[in-house]
Amino acid sequence: MAFDDRLAERVRRRLRKREGVSERKMFGGLAFLLNGHMCCGVHQRELIVRLDPAMADQALVRPHTRVFDLSGRALKGWLLVASAGVKEDKDLARWVRIAADYASSLPPK
């Protein structure tokens, strides 16, 4: 399994009403882009979240989070949320909203 299809579908439902959403296979998983910018995604069983780099340290104190680092080089403003951290719909909705709000704040590509 490259990525959790059920988690991807849950993210898809959360982003359905937003304009400019597209999907692309990336990082060995599935990425959701908003106006051409990576917003969030699914890597194996974890949620990838892109957020304002200034918020990253604060977000990393939440349970089940860690820095997104697949290559030995951490990406600023990117984190992974373990499946336990998005088990509840309200938790997934919060993370997807944070990621979508940040991607929406960037100029369209």
Descriptive notes:
By secondary structure, the chain is of the alpha+beta class. The chain has one domain (5-71, 80-105). Helix content is 29%, strand content 28%. It is built from 3 helices and 6 strands; from the N terminus they run αββββαββα. The protein has a 6-stranded antiparallel sheet with strand order 1-2-3-4-6-5. Helix 1 (5-15) packs across helix 3. The longest helix has 17 residues, at 89-105. The radius of gyration is 13 Å and the shape is globular.
Summarize the structure.
This protein is of the alpha+beta class. Helix content is 29%, strand content 28%.
Using the alpha-carbon principal axes, give the shape. Answer: globular
Largest sheet: 6 strands, antiparallel
The number of helical segments is 3
Main β-sheet, spatial strand arrangement? 1-2-3-4-6-5
Taking pLDDT < 50 over at least 5 consecutive residues as the criterion, the unreliable ranges are none
- Overall mean confidence score, pLDDT: 93
Overall tally of domains: 1
What's the total count of β strands? 6
Q: Order of SSEs, N→C?
A: HEEEEHEEH
Strand composition percent: 25-35%
Calculate Rg over CA atoms: 13 Å
What is the terminal separation in angstroms?
31 Å
Q: What structural class is derived from the secondary structure elements?
A: alpha+beta
Q: Provide the helix percentage.
A: 25-40%
